[in-house]
Amino acid sequence: MDQRVTARPLTRIQREKQEIILEAALEVFSTHGFRGATIDQIAEAAGMSKPNLLYYFGRKEDIHKALIEQLLDTWLAPLEEMDADGDPIPEIRSYIRRKLEMARDFPRESRLFANELLQGAPRIVDLLEDRLKILVDEKAGIIQRWMDEGKLVQADPYHLIFAIWATTQHYADFDVQVRAVLGKNRGGEGRFEDAARFLEQLFMHGLKPKQK
Questions:
Q1: Which domain holds residue 34?
Q2: Mind listing the pLDDT tens digit for each residue in 10-37?
Q3: At residue 189, what are phi and psi to the nearest 5 degrees?
Q4: Distances in Å between the alpha carbon of 90 and those of 82, 86, 129, 200, 203?
């Protein structure tokens, strides 16, 4: 007889409670970092008692892990969508656009991820070395093939991906600085479209093969 116990699926109310906790924790972690965040802060932000919160998540680490796993699903989606059979220039242009849209729409998630990396990624290093590396290896291989076929100029595909990450996520992680420097006339929502046009020009000009 199989003695394994299958966990009961969560009820709708339990799922809603977990989402409330995770939303509150995202705000707390992205503001204070993992070390500065406390269960009491998260419970207060979620509008529930500490014992009630601990019923759903036993430790701060469990909440943080759940957030990071959700974040990776969101964060990796734009790179996953890069189509090996597509036209390289539009594919990379679309990737830049999607990454900027994420900087615009998910600034707290970006800060959460950046905070974790700045601490040496002690809680997610396995995910970086496994899931992230596998995906980047795959897409770098696609970009290298495009280069070998003469559709893009030769360059290091890994550092191309890193450069896109750095330039697009800047608009989330350093948004206060961006808005301050651009000023009130240029620091509104249009800054993301301005950034998209500039980055497309920067990367596309550097990647297009010269006409023979």
A1: 10-58
A2: 788 888 999 999 999 999 998 888 889 9
A3: -60, -25
A4: 10, 8, 29, 10, 11
Give the chain as a 3 state SS string.
CCCCCCCCCCCHHHHHHHHHHHHHHHHHHHHHHHHHCCHHHHHHHHCCCHHHHHHHCCCHHHHHHHHHHHHHHHHHHHHHCCCCCCCHHHHHHHHHHHHHHHHHHCHHHHHHHHHHHHCCCCCCHHHHHHHHHHHHHHHHHHHHHHHHCCCCCCCCHHHHHHHHHHHHHHHHHCHHHHHHHHCCCCCCCHHHHHHHHHHHHHHHHHHCCCCC
We report the CATH number of the domain holding residue 16 as: 1.10.10.60
Contact 136, 69 (CB under 8 A): no
User: Going by C-beta distance under 8 Å and a sequence separation of 6 or more, which residues neighbour residue 128?
Assistant: 121
pTM across the whole model: 0.82
Flag whether pLDDT at 6 surpasses 50: no
Q: Is the domain of 24 the same as that of 102? A: no
Alpha-carbon gap, residue 26 to 20, rounded angstroms = 10
